[in-house]
Amino acid sequence: MPRYGGRPGVLFVFAMQGTIGPLVWLLLAEIFPLKIRSFAVGVCVFGLWMANAGVAFGFPPVVQALGIAPTFFIFAGLGVLARVFIHSVVPETRGVTLEKFEDSIKHGRKASVRACCSTRPSLSSRLKVDKGSS
């Protein structure tokens, strides 16, 4: 019987939980309107647990059928697809209130959500502040 765990498994779990793993929990706290947030997060957490169970029960048969390296390459490919999805679909919410974010999503203004989220001041505004302080 093949051994599961070992170094590749530990590195994969570390990489997942240190990069895009926490993003799911952050998104769940932000994407639902206040009226349905608790119910919707509960449904999503149930779905996450079912997906975790599917991976846990499906992993050993896939490793036996394909081997450990191809199995981890499949997971790596899924991670790359998740990264592409996050970069292309998930809006940046830094510096935006939940109400403003919800309003932007309702009206289909994803680009404006990205544009208004930059907390970094522009060069011209920094120069004005510097000139005003002297």
Characteristics:
134 residues
Q: What can you see in these coordinates?
A:
With 134 residues, the chain is mainly alpha-helical. It is built from 7 helices and no strands. Helix 3 (37-66) packs antiparallel against helix 4 (68-89). The protein is elongated and about 50 Å long.
What is the averaged pLDDT score? 75
Our measurement of the CA-to-CA distance between the termini, rounded to an integer number of angstroms, reads 74 Å
Total strands: 0
Instruction: Report the structural category.
Output: mainly alpha
Radius of gyration: 21 Å
Q: Beta-strand percentage? A: under 5%
Order of helices and strands: HHHHHHH
- The helix tally amounts to 7
Silhouette: elongated
Helical percentage: over 70%
Strand and helix map with partners:
Elements: H1 6-18, H2 21-30, H3 37-66, H4 68-89, H5 98-106, H6 110-116, H7 123-133
In short:
The protein is mainly α and about 130 residues long. The chain has helices at about 5-20, 20-30, 35-65, 70-90, 100-105, 110-115, 125-134. Helix content is about 75%, strand content about 0%.
